[in-house]
Design a protein that fits this description.
By secondary structure, the chain is α/β, with parallel strands linked by helices. The chain has helices at about 5-10, 25-30, 45-60, 75-80, 85-95, 125-130, 150-170, 185-205, 225-230, 245-250, 265, 275-295, and strands at about 15-20, 70-75, 80, 85, 100, 115, 135-145, 170-180, 210-215, 230-240, 255-260. The chain contains 12 helices and 11 strands.
Length: about 300
């Protein structure tokens, strides 16, 4: 583990940007960026365009380590380059921003009001590649739709089982059991989730550390026990479909939790903007998310 990266994530002021849209969400992300499907005729061209968007964000003068301490990358992004350097290497060597890698293959079908992750047969190879690129940690997402104890238990159990494999490979897993913001029993689901996570955390040994990426809770500071747990390096929040304004407001009410926003980070950016205008919009966005993260 890179100790400088560890200290930056553990103690640095700022937030983690999520630039890890995969095949299923790339077209939507491009559409919000002002690039319609008429601009590309193949999946390869689509991924070229999303890499150009991500590169533009990363290279922006507004995207600096004094406010952005880490970035989550999609595997294809990690394997591409920015100005001749691998994307992860560029982030750390040129921007002093800690790189993470999304390692899941998406969601399985819903069972017991939850979606665990699809199998990850490429896990070992993906972790080896992450290490070769100087990546600090990984991210993997599951989704909870209702306050169903069996579904919540299945999600958390799988997350920590795979998380231990990631730790064994020398990386730090971001455990992400997302509670759908439209869950009709969201607060009750969060009670079940906290209990399940605490049980798993308490079973870890002193050398097994994780990060948590959670939906902003209905009750402010609800996850304070998780923030304070000795096995948790950092708790980060996903925007989950909330507007950036609402997500920032909720985030500012949760002490010790920082942002890891995706859609809310890119909100307002457009391929049609000049570089000057692009940087201005991104600067405002980054500052707002930063301020909400350090409150």
């Amino acid at each position: 583990m890179n100790q400088a990266q560890f200290e930056q994530i553990k103690s640095g002021n700022g937030f983690i940007g999520a630039l890890d849209q995969s095949g299923g969400s790339t077209a939507k992300a491009l559409g919000l960026y002002g690039v319609t499907d008429s601009a590309y005729s193949s999946e390869a061209e689509m991924f070229d365009l999303i890499h150009a968007m991500r590169s533009r964000i990363i290279k922006s003068a507004s995207f600096t380590s004094d406010r952005v301490i880490g970035v989550i990358l999609f595997e294809m992004t990690m394997n591409r380059t920015i100005d001749g350097l691998g994307t992860a290497e560029f982030l750390w060597q040129k921007k002093n921003i800690v790189p993470f890698l999304k390692i899941d293959n998406g969601l399985a079908d819903e069972v017991n009001d939850a979606q665990v992750m699809k199998p990850i047969p490429e896990l070992s190879a993906r972790l080896a590649a992450a290490n070769s690129h100087g990546v600090f940690g990984t991210k993997m997402r599951s989704v909870i739709k209702r306050a169903n104890s069996e579904g919540v238990s299945a999600v958390v159990k799988q997350q920590f089982e795979i998380g231990k494999e990631i730790i064994a490979a020398g990386l730090v897993p971001i455990i992400e059991p997302e509670v759908d913001i439209n869950c009709p029993e969201k607060a009750a689901a969060e009670v079940l989730l906290e209990k399940a996570i605490l049980a798993e955390l308490d079973s870890l040994n002193a050398d097994q550390n994780v990060m948590l990426k959670l939906t902003l809770p209905d009750h402010a500071n609800f996850y304070s026990k998780l923030v304070a747990h000795p096995r948790v390096i950092k708790v980060v929040a996903l925007s989950g479909g909330y507007s950036r304004e609402k997500a920032n407001k909720m985030l500012s009410e949760n002490a010790g939790v920082i942002a890891s926003f995706s859609r809310a980070l890119a909100e307002g950016l457009s391929a049609q903007q000049s570089d000057v205008d692009f940087d201005k919009v991104l600067d405002v966005t980054v500052q707002e998310i930063y301020e909400a993260s350090i409150k």
